[in-house]
Design a protein that fits this description.
Layout (H helix, E strand, L loop, with lengths): L15 H4 L3 E2 L1 E6 L5 E6 L2 E5 L4 E6 L11 H9 L1 E6 L5 H6 L10 H4 L4 E3 L6 E3 L4 E12 L6 E12 L4 E2 L2 E2 L7 E3 L5 E3 L13
Antiparallel strand pairs: 1-13, 2-3, 2-6, 4-5, 5-10, 6-9, 7-8, 9-10, 11-12, 13-14
């Protein structure tokens, strides 16, 4: 099968998200200028550079009460900071709860029964139960083609790791099993790993 996205695919559901998988989930916590907290998951997310450490996530869609975007991006515009929390398998239901299109005054931490811990380098809360959290300052917001499509780039200014996830000096993802987004309503979980040496290391 071949199709041009502009012409449509003719399938019951859009296959695009099912092709680009698995995708890590950036669980973005923000605080608005009014002090209100927000927490929402984004699967258009990844690390982009080592030195300095940088990452990105993209927001698609619009909430009518948020000036052409969603709560996370609106808060980042106001404050210039955000925190990326890593989602473990144990936190899957809490993450899903925070994915709802809740009113801007809703505190998703409270809604999902999650603890808040203060960030060290930015004025924002992080998910206390997360295996890792990345504090970020905004680098730029890039407007993408299409309605409500925005890419947020940030520099990591602080990194939290749960002590129980460190094994022999290595951040062990199998100690918490990261959640990943697939297509449609599907998710996956990392339960095994293997290593490969680069050609120059053999």
């Amino acid at each position: 099968m071949f199709y041009r996205p502009e012409d449509g695919h003719g399938l019951p559901h859009n296959p695009y998200n099912a092709i680009v998988t698995p995708r890590p989930i950036g669980w973005i916590s923000t605080r608005g200028a009014d002090g209100g907290e927000n927490l929402a998951p984004y699967s258009f997310f990844n690390a982009t550079a080592y030195v300095p450490p940088q990452l990105m996530f993209s927001s698609t869609g619009i909430k009518p009460d948020r000036d052409g975007t969603k709560d996370s991006v609106a808060n980042i515009r106001e404050t210039g900071v955000f925190c990326v929390n890593i989602v473990s398998y144990a936190l899957r239901d809490a993450m899903n709860t925070t994915s709802g299109a809740w009113d801007k005054d809703t505190d998703e931490f409270d809604l999902a029964g999650l603890g808040k811990s203060p960030c060290e380098t930015i004025a924002c809360s992080r998910v206390a139960e997360a295996p890792a959290s990345l504090e970020c300052k905004l680098s730029q917001i890039v407007t993408l083609e299409g309605k409500g499509n925005l890419m947020i780039l940030g520099e990591v200014t602080g990194i939290h790791m749960r002590d129980d996830c460190l094994k022999d000096g290595i951040f062990d993802v199998l100690s918490f099993n990261p959640l990943a987004r697939m297509g449609y309503r599907d998710y996956s979980v990392v339960r095994e790993k293997f290593s490969l040496n680069r050609p120059e290391e053999k």
